[in-house]
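ok trying again, last paste got cut off:
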Amino acid sequence: MRSSRYSAAAGVAAACWLLAAFFAPDTAWAASDAGHHGPGLGDVLPFWSILPFAGLLLSIAILPMVAEHWWHSNRNQLIVAVGWASPVFLWLTYTALTDHGTVGHDAAHGLEHAIEEYLSFIALLGSLYVISGGILLRGDLEGKPHVNTAFLAIGAVLSNVIGTTGASMLLIRPMLRTNAQQKHTWHIPLFFIFLVSNIGGALTPIGDPPLFLGYLRGIDFWWTLEHLWMLWAPVVVVLLVMFFFLDRYYYQQEAIRSTRDDSTHIEPLRLEGNLNFLWLAGVIACVLVLSPDPEVVDFRHYYAREIGMAVLTILSLQLTPRPLRAANDFTWTPILEVAALFIGIFVAMIPATTLLQANGASLGLTEPWQYFWATGMLSAFLDNAPTYVTFAAVACGTYEFCTTAENLAPLSVEAASQPILVAISLGAVFLGAGSYIGNGPNFMVRAIAEQSGYKMPSFFGYCGYALMFLGPVFVVLTLVALI
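nice, full thing came through this time. structure:
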């Protein structure tokens, strides 16, 4: 009963946030339309206003290690997220309602934009997660190096189509089954996280959450493919070659009995739940066709894209047989964790992004390689989606033609800023693989691997492996392409 009351209280608080965000900003807009004079929000915010954002991100990093059982409750995650972000939400709402100048206008618009972004973000991730969870890839191949490398290569490409979350959900269990009879397999889930859950998804906004946030802030859908593929391809190829030789070495160390057992447990791959591919195509169509044009007010401004994704998700839930989802070990826990945490992140990061936009020039970040490593290091140990937005705001604040961090389109079209945006995008996506908390699918793959009997490294052990394998690749990338 007590647990239910806490869950209800947290849920009510989150619901009140959403309602207030829709009504309070409208009032402030009306009051402030008469004229905006004086300093903006970024000029009056104290630097301690970023403490809730920092506290929330540190909670996400530390609580899973020091209070693992408590933290794994979605209710507790929501309580932490709402608790940290509530001061920011209340202050912005109060300012939006009482200040009739530029500060009130900025507070209202920032809060409204954060809630809109959150809804779009969760709609995309939720639809990809649920629909891909209805596709079951059965089978058990022989775990030879070329087979494993092919799994990773296909996953790296597929993550751009159904997202890193969808590709991870679809491929991790078949790959683990393929190698279940072998003993030396510690490296397989690690490279899966590197390539499928992170680096592979750098070519489309659907691929990885940071890029989708950029798309929501005005960057053209095809910009990432056009500008990132020439750097994406060599990094993926180098990691695939690295994995192949490492996997071949360990395959040769396997006992004859293990390889013989592996060769006798072959089951051809086959897909079930294929109707869900139609729903996935529908999600992509929603992103391409129903995304609103900021210059034109039409029906697409009224969440047509999100409603379309919700309808496709419901169709998947209704038309996919429940035994198929059960065989896929589908649960709601991972996507509920994302929903619970990001409702706080999107609100709490408003002061950080606003201050960085107003004071970005003073940080001294001027070169692409600086943005790559600054964005990447925070993405590895915090979360890559808000980190992308934060450093995009920094870059926006250093160029006169980028007037607001809520519209990043100028960064993507101006020749002077394109290399910076490329570096931010790569840093957020590539170094999201730097730790278990860098990107949502990382935790999910770790949990599935442990459930399947694979011994996964500790938090810091994983970071050590990421530094060992990814560090040299990213250093070379920096020297060749970003300096």
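cool. Confidence is low (pLDDT under 50) at residues 1-8, 21-35. The chain has 22 helices and two strands.
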